[in-house]
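Tutorial handout. Part one gives the primary structure; part two gives the three-dimensional structure as tokens.
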Amino acid sequence: MQVFENNNFLCVDKRPGFLTVPSRWGAQDPRPCELIDWSQKKQIHLWPIHRLDEEVSGVLLFAKTPEAHRTANRWFEHHQIQKTYEALTASAKAPWTPEKMEVWKSHLLRGKKRAYEKPFGKEAITEAVLQSQTSSTPSGCSLWRLSPLTGRAHQLRYELSKRELPILGDSLYGSQKNFSVPQAIALRAVELNLSKCPEAASLGLPQRLQVKGLLEWSLGSAN
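Part two.
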């Protein structure tokens, strides 16, 4: 689904089961790809700015010009874009306190499939908040709001698994619980905050690009 478009950017709600960009196997890879699909729909060349894992849904930004691509890449490289995700895990009990900000730090490397921790790995920093339980939160589950301050591969998936709270549906990181949406794990990029990005306003971008939250989206996608 398209979220936003102007002359410089296209923002979409990435679908689970879709690659962000083509894999190294190119045309031999049968999996659908958001970059290819939207380039064909719009009949234009698109440039990827950031990536979401195949199993992850949510807000995804493409550039429509080389200049916009260079500028937005610089925002991500300088950590000027704040990314917010929501994740659903098994019930988080003590010592976790709802609405309390946690700062998680690890040193991560990426293996063939999984991320793992080593003292010489790249620093990964995540702000995490356990959301208060509501009537819409599935029984026996906890909803997390996560902001990665660094962009390491599988960073959020690793951090929750490390705390014995793997994301629902994420069997790669130890989850034994299914998620209701086919081809998805219960991790969703819900917002890109662009308020600290130079040139964002002049390039026609709003301060925030947002999509439906994980719980609302999953209810609609599972039906």
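Part three, for discussion. Residues 2-222 form a domain with the Pseudouridine synthase fold (CATH 3.30.2350.10). The chain is about 15% helix and 30% strand.
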